[in-house]
Design goal:
The protein is an all-alpha fold and about 300 residues long. It has one domain. Helices cover about 80% and strands about 0% of the residues. It has 8 helices and 2 strands; from the N terminus they run αααββααααα. It has a two-stranded antiparallel sheet. β1 and β2 form a beta hairpin. About 10% of the residues have low confidence.
């Protein structure tokens, strides 16, 4: 082969390599946009599951509060009982109001993920970008209002740490890239808030359930067995009690899901091709299992 032929071959090979590189880079960009669609779908599932978890945590909190009232009942006169009941009802009602605000926040979060899925799709249009922008702003406004309210006696604003810097990667979907560059910081702040709130609520819910289970063991499970012959239903009661203790080990699924949601968003926005999406989906499934029949 003469030098002219060698140069032509080398030029051809260089063109082939260049084309492959372009295809790979373009493919990665497309994959990231596609991953954002999958992430947004997981985000919608998360928003629904976390709202059910909030309602479950409220149920457990009211049961714990009612148990404490019963413990105080015998040591108080009629006036004292009325006073304590009024005080505790006010505390629970304040918590119900905060959780209602959090549910509204979750509903807007769900709408945002729906808009993000549309924006990340190949059929994205100006309406999708406008909806994502509007909803990210609405989330920010809700968070500003929520930050003044307490969870566990501490204002939410004091619980949320500093949001780290987030560098947005490049995407073939320019509308998605523009949205992320303008609003990723706001969304990241929302997800940091979610993570912290779910951590606090999970800790409280676990503590409440441990108190309730200890009381149930002491009052329901132990006395019949100390008698001569436990009643027939005692076997089923013991099984239910032990399985409830096992179920409590899955209680941190909501906290895990919130953490993975934040981590996947940061990773994908930064240009990663996966970011732990499978771990997020698995955590959301564990939330659904926990708040199912075994978590009620």
């Amino acid at each position: 082969m003469n030098r002219s032929s060698e140069r032509r071959v080398l030029c051809f090979l260089n063109l082939v390599v260049f084309a492959l590189v372009v295809a790979l880079v373009s493919g990665c960009g497309a994959a990231r946009a596609g991953r954002f669609e999958a992430f947004a779908a997981a985000g919608m599932n998360y928003a629904q599951a976390r709202n059910q978890f909030l309602r479950h945590s409220l149920d457990v909190n009211i049961e714990r509060d009612t148990l404490e009232l019963r413990k105080q009942h015998g040591a108080l006169d009629a006036a004292g009982r009325a006073r304590v009941l009024t005080e505790q009802d006010k505390i629970v009602q304040e918590r119900i109001a905060i959780l209602a605000d959090l549910e509204r926040h979750g509903a807007v979060l769900n709408q945002y993920f729906l808009a993000l899925a549309r924006l990340a799709s190949t059929q994205a249009d100006a309406n999708a970008a406008a909806a994502a922008t509007r909803l990210s702003g609405e989330l920010g406004g809700l968070t500003d209002a929520l930050s003044k309210k307490p969870i566990g006696g501490i204002p939410i604003s004091e619980r949320v740490g500093q949001v780290t810097a987030l560098a947005v990667g490049g995407f073939r979907n320019r509308a998605l890239e523009r949205h992320l560059k303008e609003h990723a910081r706001t969304v990241q702040r929302e997800l940091v808030l979610e993570e912290e709130l779910l951590r606090v609520l999970t800790d409280e819910m676990i503590a409440d359930r441990k108190v309730l289970q200890a009381n149930e063991r002491r009052t329901v499970l132990v006395p019949p067995f100390r008698g001569d012959t436990p009643p027939p239903e005692w076997d089923a009661e013991r099984k239910r009690f032990l399985l409830a203790e096992v179920d409590l080990t899955r209680a941190r699924a909501a906290q895990d899901a919130a953490r993975h949601l934040r981590m996947v968003f940061e990773s994908l926005a930064g240009g990663a091709d996966d970011g732990g999406l499978a771990a997020l989906q698995a955590a959301i499934e564990r939330v659904n299992q926990f708040i199912g029949p075994g978590g009620k």
